[in-house]
Amino acid sequence: MGCSVCRTKLNFGRALPVTMLFLFAYLSYCLTGWCESAPRITSQSALLRGNVLLEVLSTQQQYPRNGTASSESLRALSQPLDSGKGVAHEALGTNGIPVSNTYGSKKFPQAIIIGVKKGGTRALLEFLRVHPDVRALGAEPHFFDRFYEKGLEWYRNLMPRTLDGQITMEKTPSYFVTKETPSRLCAMNCSTKLIVVVRDPVTRAVSDYTQTLTKTPGLPSFQSLAFKNSSSGAVDASWSAVRIGLYAQHLENWLRHFPLSSFLFVSGERLVSDPAGEVGRVQDFLGLKRIVGDKHFYFNRTKGFPCLKKPEGSSRPRCLGKSKGRTHPPISSEVLHKLRDFYRPFNLRFYQMSGQDFGWD
User: Fold this and answer.
1) Which strand ranges, in their side-by-side order, compose the sheet holding 134-136?
2) DSSP state for residue 139 in the 8-state scheme
3) 103-125: pLDDT as tens digits
4) Which of 340, 6, 70 is nearest to 206 (CA)?
5) Of 84, 76, 123, which Cα lies nearest the Cα of 105?
6) DSSP assignment, residue 176?
7) In whole angstroms, what is the distance from residue 194 CA to residue 31 CA?
8) Does pTM surpass 0.90?
């Protein structure tokens, strides 16, 4: 009896280390993602199809309020954030088990749509987001013109996580006309690719006014705002709707910090008449394979601009919201003619600087 108990204890003592070793190996095996009972994501395409590409906000860290950074700080910030940091949201995998989305890293944008307001920037961004290798922030962050004092870390934390081979993008049209933005952006990365969507400045000014009019019904007439006084007929270039269309002046400011090769100028008119062609140029500029093409678009005659065909699994196509494609108020041809005369020398100068004739005159 006593000997039997001793043998049992001895066998148990020998078996315990083996059992512990087996459990350790099993847990390691599962944690690496090879255990069938543990959730795992097997490929980048599965990530996209599984719709688990959620934007994750990392814990915000403090940064100097003056928005400046030492060279050491900039070098540190240029490294991708540790994918294990931050607050991870959970999505359901194909087997219904929560999957923690801590993949990828948050990076500074490699490309930014910097302008112009009412030029077609929202349409271009939505078209580009169809591309599987483009990850873009939906809202306009306005970091370089409004929130620069929050610091670079705050800015990067706004960005979506990206996988290897994907491009991070954002768009803020007011960057192009903000004097301080070029130097600030270059301080972050002078190799950033810059996209400017431009449009006939007269049509753009009317569209700008129309948008403001919907928000401020008591707004004075377009003519009274566009001209200093009705008798002289002098254009008021200080009015923002007019000033934004002085593309040559704004570009001169940017060329003090970036070479012309950093820019791609997209025609807002061709983005409507030939969206696949213009988006193709953008994909080439970004070094992406031409995936977004004719098959993705159809022309919405009601709105007067192209929309994206409905994606797989959706019951409706993707069109820009009601704020896009507004009917412009009637403006006399004399007023429009005076504005065209005013813009003509600026347009010609912009054609020469950009190397493109947009045919606005």
Assistant:
1) 134-136, 167-171, 111-115, 193-198, 263-267
2) S
3) 899 999 999 999 999 999 999 99
4) 340
5) 84
6) G
7) 42
8) no
